Amino acid sequence: MENFFGLLKSELLYLKEFESIEQFKVELANYIYYYNHKRIKPKLKGMSPAPYRTHAQAAA
Protein backbone atom coordinates (compact mmCIF):
# COMPACT_ATOMS: atom_id res chain seq x y z
CA MET A 1 0.00 0.00 0.00
CA GLU A 2 2.85 2.40 0.73
CA ASN A 3 4.16 1.88 -2.79
CA PHE A 4 0.71 2.54 -4.30
CA PHE A 5 0.23 5.78 -2.36
CA GLY A 6 3.76 6.91 -3.17
CA LEU A 7 3.12 6.38 -6.87
CA LEU A 8 -0.30 7.98 -6.62
CA LYS A 9 1.18 11.12 -5.12
CA SER A 10 4.07 11.37 -7.57
CA GLU A 11 2.12 10.44 -10.72
CA LEU A 12 -1.20 12.19 -10.04
CA LEU A 13 -1.42 14.42 -7.00
CA TYR A 14 1.77 16.44 -7.48
CA LEU A 15 1.40 16.78 -11.27
CA LYS A 16 -2.12 18.20 -11.54
CA GLU A 17 -4.19 20.95 -10.03
CA PHE A 18 -7.78 20.03 -9.31
CA GLU A 19 -10.59 22.55 -9.56
CA SER A 20 -12.97 20.58 -7.36
CA ILE A 21 -13.33 17.45 -5.25
CA GLU A 22 -15.47 15.92 -8.00
CA GLN A 23 -12.70 16.41 -10.57
CA PHE A 24 -10.23 14.82 -8.15
CA LYS A 25 -12.55 11.83 -7.66
CA VAL A 26 -12.83 11.30 -11.42
CA GLU A 27 -9.05 11.56 -11.88
CA LEU A 28 -8.50 9.20 -8.94
CA ALA A 29 -10.86 6.60 -10.43
CA ASN A 30 -9.04 6.92 -13.78
CA TYR A 31 -5.68 6.50 -12.07
CA ILE A 32 -6.81 3.39 -10.17
CA TYR A 33 -8.08 1.87 -13.43
CA TYR A 34 -4.76 2.69 -15.11
CA TYR A 35 -2.81 1.27 -12.15
CA ASN A 36 -4.66 -2.05 -12.28
CA HIS A 37 -5.34 -2.53 -16.00
CA LYS A 38 -2.87 -0.56 -18.13
CA ARG A 39 0.38 -0.20 -16.16
CA ILE A 40 2.92 -2.71 -17.50
CA LYS A 41 5.25 -4.24 -14.93
CA PRO A 42 8.35 -6.20 -15.98
CA LYS A 43 8.13 -8.09 -12.67
CA LEU A 44 4.71 -9.43 -13.80
CA LYS A 45 6.11 -10.80 -17.07
CA GLY A 46 5.27 -7.63 -18.97
CA MET A 47 1.61 -7.66 -17.98
CA SER A 48 -0.47 -5.27 -15.92
CA PRO A 49 -1.75 -6.47 -12.51
CA ALA A 50 -5.35 -7.40 -13.45
CA PRO A 51 -4.49 -9.52 -16.53
CA TYR A 52 -1.60 -11.11 -14.63
CA ARG A 53 -3.95 -12.26 -11.84
CA THR A 54 -6.34 -13.72 -14.42
CA HIS A 55 -3.45 -15.44 -16.22
CA ALA A 56 -2.00 -16.81 -12.97
CA GLN A 57 -5.39 -18.21 -11.88
CA ALA A 58 -5.93 -19.88 -15.26
CA ALA A 59 -2.48 -21.49 -15.11
CA ALA A 60 -3.07 -22.91 -11.62
Automatic annotation (TrEMBL):
<dbReference type="InterPro" id="IPR001584">
    <property type="entry name" value="Integrase_cat-core"/>
</dbReference>
<feature type="domain" description="Integrase catalytic">
    <location>
        <begin position="2"/>
        <end position="55"/>
    </location>
</feature>
<protein>
    <recommendedName>
        <fullName>Integrase catalytic domain-containing protein</fullName>
    </recommendedName>
</protein>
<dbReference type="InterPro" id="IPR012337">
    <property type="entry name" value="RNaseH-like_sf"/>
</dbReference>
<dbReference type="GO" id="GO:0015074">
    <property type="term" value="P:DNA integration"/>
</dbReference>
<dbReference type="Pfam" id="PF13333">
    <property type="entry name" value="rve_2"/>
</dbReference>
